[in-house]
Amino acid sequence: MKPNPKKNKSQGVLIKYFKLYKFHFLVGFLSLLTVDLFQLQIPVITGNITDGLQSGNYEFSNLLNQVLTLLLIGLLIACFRFIWRYFIFGTSRKIEYGLRNDFFGHLEKLSLRFFNEHKTGDLMAHATNDLNAIRMMVGPGVLMSLDAITLCVLVIYQMITKISLNLTLVAIIPLPLIAIGGIFFGRAIRARFKDKQEAFAHMSEMVQENISGVQVVKAFVQETKEIKAFNETNKNNYDKNMRVIKLFAIMNPLAMLVTGLSIAIVLGYGGYMTMLGNITLGDFVAFTQYLLMLVWPMIAFGWCINIMSHGLASLSRFQNILDEKPEIIDEETVKQIDSIKGDIVIDNLTFNYPGSGLKELDNISVTVNKGETLGIVGRTGSGKTTLVNMLLRMYNPPRGTIFIDDVDIMDIPLKVLRHSIGYVPQDNFLFSDTISRNIAFGVIETSDEYIECAAKNANVHDNIIEFSNKYATVVGERGVTLSGGQKQRISIARALIKDPAIMILDDSVSAVDTNTEEQILNHIKEERKDKTTIIIAHRISTIQNSDKIIVIDEGKIIESGTHDSLVEQKGLYYNMVEKQQLEKELEKE
Q1: Name one GO molecular function term (predicted).
Q2: Does pLDDT of 185 surpass 50?
Q3: Three-state DSSP state, 474
Q4: Pick from 132, 141, 196: which is nearest to 307 by CA?
Q5: DSSP states of 189-223 as a string?
């Protein structure tokens, strides 16, 4: 039979943690074994007391010694039970902590393509439900499995050696039925649990989207529609959960039925052997207690199947994410570069997104010298943002197509490249934190003075000091408490405080009026005289003073030059100028 590489991979994610915490697991298991050994003495002592009392010549001192021994055993069991719970349950929490860090750290290394292909709700389910199921597997799952097997073996050994082989064999005849049922139910539960986790992920994604897009939902009066859609998704999640619960609901009673059958056999056959004098009354009492001790392993066996099935299904899903390889990494040819100056050369750049046959960029060539400002305009979807993604290496450009300071961008260390670029994206994402921390997000150390200076250059300082908590104001999730213009300007301040060699504004002043836009651009021009700036915009006024302007349409540069020369060409750029001037005149009327 060939090994299953996928299964081995799934289990491999835990191997390093089992090795790391092997001492903890060893101490936990030895403590558990000690508890089981002490428990085995209780039926022996109880049997001795029973036989002693039946004999009629049992001295009180002997009874007292036996009772004190039971109390001591109970105390030792409590102590060692604390030890195994601390080491095994505590270690499972440490493993969960480590796996969660591994998961988040791995996500941070993955490319944009991965996040475009995976839903947020699904990733959140991996970080919560799946990790919890894995923790339960390596904690209670491992514990109950070891305890059930160890206790079962020790108890049966005691029953055979201390009391009666025949009675033991008769009593355990029904027990293999539990193992057979466990194999069947385990496979079924694992498959159904995987479906359950996927349903939960889909539901989480829907909740996340509706919370993030609550303004859109309300604006389009779609509350009723979304509630109905959520009810259907929630019902699917409920149904998947019930499919798991039904199997578990069948499995436990069956295990108890088999255990009850064993007890009935012991009471009948064991009682008969006692009446014949083959075993003493004390032996019968002890054997009954041993059999009752087997009830827990039988119950635990059912729980273990459930927990281990859940855990293995989650581990498989979790491992699939960890198996994703980071696509954007430093290559072997990377050079030792600490900083960049800002000279950019793009030479015959052609690019299409993975899985897409369409050319997003087609033979793009442009040069931007240090200290120059490049303006980029074009219709929506023409490839402007894709070009920016190439410069940031959010996607890898073909080798030999983009150079910074005469070095192929693929040979520049990724951290150096991105540290040297200040990027203001279209969506102006802000974290649910204070304004000051949002502005200082891209720098390791800074001061209030630098934060305020960046805010002033972004023309947002006056707005900030009007808030009751000023720079300590928490902006809410994605900056929900701020206007669009305020979010844009804080995003610009976040890029300015880095004082980057290259700054990219991707349609980043569209939400402010033209007067504010002019002030921001003048500040940027003044502060960045000797640095490279790239401005993408739809408004001609935003880029008209750039040293060089390129017009992109359907992934190609169709026009390039200064504002005046492009107007003279009377092409697409000229049409955009005319259209925007007409719109401005109509607004005045």
Answers
A1: ABC-type oligopeptide transporter activity
A2: yes
A3: strand
A4: 141
A5: HHHHHHHHHHHHHHHHHHHHHHHHTHHHHHHTT-H
Beta bridge partners of 505: 424, 535
561 & 440 share domain: no
Q: How far apart are CA 22 and CA 9, in angstroms?
A: 20
Q: Which domain, by its residues, includes 137?
A: 89-322
pTM for this predicted structure: 0.72
Task: Kindly state the average pLDDT of the residues 383-387.
Answer: 88
The rounded Cα 526 to chain-centroid distance in angstroms is 43
C-alpha to C-alpha distance for 147 and 28, rounded to whole angstroms = 11
Q: Which two tokens stand for residue 138?
A: 């390596």
DSSP state of 351: E
Q: Are 477 and 494 in contact (CB under 8 A)?
A: no
- Tell me how far apart the alpha carbons of residues 430 and 304 are, in angstroms, rounded to a whole number: 45
From the CB of residue 417, how many other CB atoms can be counted at a distance below 10 Å?
21
Radius of gyration of the chain (CA): 35
Residue where a domain stops, chosen among 322, 340, 363: 322
User: Quick one: 374 and 228 in the same domain?
Assistant: no
pLDDT bin (cut points 50, 70, 90) of residue 529 is confident
Instruction: Please identify which residue in the block is written with the tokens 């069991």.
Output: 77
Give kind and range of the element (H or E) at residue 560: strand 556-561
Structure tokens at 506: 């991707």
In tens, the pLDDT along 278-291 reads: 878 878 788 888 87
DSSP assignments along 372-435, one per residue: -EEEEEESTTSSHHHHHHHHTTSSPPPTTSEEETTEEGGGS-HHHHHHTEEEE-TT----SSBH
Cβ(348)–Cβ(362) under 8 Å? no
**Which residue pairs, CB below 8 angstroms and at least 24 apart, start in 323-327?**
323/9, 324/106, 324/110, 324/114, 326/109, 326/110, 326/111, 327/110, 327/111, 327/113, 327/114, 327/396
Q: Which amino acid belongs to residue 326? A: P
Per DSSP, which regions of 439-517 are E strands?
Answer: 502-506
Place of tokens 């779609």: 222
**Residue 207: what residue type?**
V
The pLDDT, as a whole number, for residue 27 is 92
Beta-carbon contacts of 545 under 8 Å, excluding residues fewer than 6 positions away, are 373, 521, 525, 563
Q: Domain containing 541 — which CATH number?
A: 3.40.50.300
Q: Which residue has the tokens 């192929």?
A: 408
Q: Same structural domain for residues 141 and 280?
A: yes
